[in-house]
Amino acid sequence: MKISAIIITLNEELNIENAINSVSWCDEIIIVDSDSWDKTVEIARKYTGKIYNIQNRTISEKRNYSIEKAKNEWVLFLDADERISEGLKNEILRLSPDYQTAGYWVKRKNYWFGKWIKHSANYPDYQLKLFNKKKCRVTKRLIHEGVETEGKTLRLENDLLHYSYRDLTHMINKINFFSTLEADEHLKTNKQISKFGVFTHAVSAFLRIYLSNKGFKDGKEGFFVSFCYALTNFLSHLKLLKVQGKI
Fold first, then answer.
1. pLDDT digits (tens, 9 = 90+) for 11-60
2. Distances (CA, A) of 221 to 53, 138, 224
3. Cβ–Cβ < 8 Å for 243, 183
4. Half-sphere exposure at residue 70, Cβ-oriented, CA atoms within 13 angstroms
5. In which residue ranges of the chain is CATH 3.90.550.10 found?
6. Which helix or strand (DSSP H or E) is residue 69 part of?
7. Alpha-carbon distance 165 to 158, whole Å?
8. What letter does residue 14 receive in the DSSP assignment?
9. Nearest-angstrom CA–CA distance, 70 and 231
10. Which of 161, 190, 191, 224 is most open to solvent, judged by the fewest CB atoms within 10 Å of its CB?
11. Among 39, 31, 28, 26, which Cα is nearest to 8's?
12. Partners of residue 159 on adjacent β-strands
């Protein structure tokens, strides 16, 4: 089957070359950028001429836009900080889907500060990354968008590598970014929360990841994972209270 690889970018000069190289075997590579002011687009142009720039749209809208630009039925979504492993590449190249198959789930192997996080609800972290665009659609969400399918889906055995956070600065910046999107999503769905609930939800998020999902087994990185979930939860609800005029 012929595959169109799609990467959505914003200031990913540190990642984009490795991401593109990991899908160089695909029949088409599409970059959808959002006015990056670093060298992302300059680097990407070395590998593909199919680079589009769109602003003021949600990630879901950007993904749907990119699907429309794909010339092939089968689409492979890849974030700039993700890599297709050699094993996963070979597994995909051997695929011969029947007409009932809509897509494939892959195991995402998450790395925090260079370490593979085996617990903390971070593995196998299945993601529907490879799918037939005629049988799937991207959910209309501001954050944590997914792919809905009309047909059967199967699981692949090999790993997708995900380099989530490089260092503490990178982690804090992403927490701020994602917590804003989550607050907007909560506002969109008219979620209600009290000032006290802002704290209890954050503590609950930490304990769920660190204790229930055995984040403590991942050492200090497991603590940072748990702290990241808790802080994102705390800030998203705090920002929600702010836009609702409750604080």
1. 999 999 999 999 999 999 999 999 999 999 999 999 999 999 988 778 88
2. 35, 32, 5
3. yes
4. 25
5. 3-164
6. helix 59-69
7. 22
8. T
9. 37
10. 190
11. 31
12. 107
Percentage helix, strand, coil for the chain under 3-state DSSP, each rounded to 5: 40, 25, 35
pTM (2 decimals)?
0.90
Report d(CA 158, CA 84) in Å as an integer: 9
- Between CA 119 and CA 173 the distance in angstroms is 23
Q: How many residues does the chain have?
A: 247
Helices (H), the chain: 16-22, 40-44, 59-69, 86-93, 168-188, 195-207, 219-243
Structure-token pair, residue 121: 């609800």
What residue type is 175 in one-letter code?
A: I
Q: How confident is the model at residue 120, as a pLDDT?
A: 92
> What 3-state DSSP class applies to 239?
helix
pLDDT tens, residue by residue, 175-198: 999 999 999 889 888 899 999 999
* Architecture field, domain 3-164: Alpha-Beta Complex (3.90)
Contact 161, 85 (CB under 8 A): yes
The 10s digit of each residue's pLDDT in 87-122 is 999 999 999 999 899 999 999 999 999 999 999 989
CA distance 162 to 11: 17
